[in-house]
Structures
1.
Amino acid sequence: MHFMLRDGWYVQFLREDLRTSLRRTFTFQDAGKVEELAERGAAFKTLADRQGFDHGISMGRGAVWLHLTDEQVKKLM
């Protein structure tokens, strides 16, 4: 999941190749919603994962690896 602050928090999902994007994108006004998506995708397995996410939010852009179920991936397509 890639996120950036651009007229709100723009969130895009990429496949493992980091080139192919999934159709579904989101734009949120609150960074807390981006964090909620990351939590639902089990992005915070370690403290370093959490710190990297927080650093990305403070910079206005970043990315995290999500661990999605097949059902979650289908919803993003």
2.
Amino acid sequence: MAVSVLKVLMKDAMDTTSLLEAITKEGFGADEIIGIAAKTEGNGGVNDFGRRLIDHLLRQFFVEHGSRTKEQAANVPIALSGGCPGIIAPHLNVFGRVDDPNPSDELRIAVGSAISEPIAPEEIGRPEGVAKIAEGVKKAMAASGIEDPADVHYVQTKSPLLTMERIEDAKARGKTVCIEDTMESMAFGNATGALGIGVALGEFPMPKAEQIGYDLDLYSSVASCSSGVEHEEAQIMLVGNKRGAGGRFRIGHSVMKDAIDIDGIYEAIRNAGLPLSDHPHPSDLGDALVNCFIKCETAQTGRLRGHRLVSLNDSDVHHTLQTKAAVGGVAAAVTGDPAMFVSVAALQQGPGGGGMVAAIIDTSKLPS
């Protein structure tokens, strides 16, 4: 079966009616949903319980509108990037299987998913956690049918971060954790996922413990990682292109070198197969762009193209929200669409101060 990719705008935090309407129109049901990556409203932090609410509602949707059991629904990868500061519009990106009786031999999207082994608190930010996620990514790639890692353009993970309860659990067992600041543990959780992806795809060998979260020259160019309180394991969705997969959709990727690198976004769209001039305009995209999946990060130097920034020192609004809002604005300006998947805490998911970008296009809507 081929893969269809839908962007579904959410009318409110509990809106699953729009999801049902969209998949019905596209011609598949709840049982055919492979995975979901979504921007959800909330504070985007450790205590963003909006993610838990929406995760629960989506898994309940699988059960109520399909034939999955609760246990089966729990194994569908759902990555919720919490926080829609600025002009980012909440939305679901839904990957579903559809029939294509006459698939072409052109490159089209293929998707594989997997669930890693549970990741203990003491394994976050450490090689043990990287190894578990790498094994999960290898399983997802096998499930996708993609054989060449060069054909993989986007790997989305959702893995655990550290809470006070998880830190105390580790200490009670005589273990230590990589960091005791729960908010900052989000970045280390994401770095663990990114390096696991890179190891699995052969981008680099297994990193040393001291490189995780610190060696910014070591990064995956296809990793988009999110961490939260929803799961104790990594939920993994791997997306690439495969000849003969069928369907209308194709994916490409690039990287943003910094937070305002619009060329990085346009290059990902070109890489997906949408021709663009040297100086594109949002109107050039037409209706062909489904979405961009962007990771972003405030540069640890506190500077952007030589200019001093103050967000890292802001005690009122955490720098992750400021960066997410800023890059969300950049992405909206570049594409003409505020419903872009912009996720922060991009340690080792692209160059330091920048991040990876994946773009999905609908080939049936390419300009003739």
3.
Amino acid sequence: MLMGAIAAWVFCEKDQSVVLMTVSAIAAIGCLWTWRACHRYAANLAQRRHDYTGEFYDITVAEADAIPDWIASVNFCFSVLSLTMLIIAIKI
């Protein structure tokens, strides 16, 4: 998410295309949304455990594996897009 936000900021500072800045911002928001959705799936499953403490990273590997593949794939795509936009922002 941070990569997309930095790329959007760089595009804005360099007065580059609004389209590039918008794509970077959308990629950053998409990363944040899908990351939150992934965490919510795992946390919902973790709450069923008797030793769940409610800590942010109190999730086991099995619970993390319960995240639907489509959300993980969308998260990966947004992350790659954020990285690509950051590389483009640095190169321009």
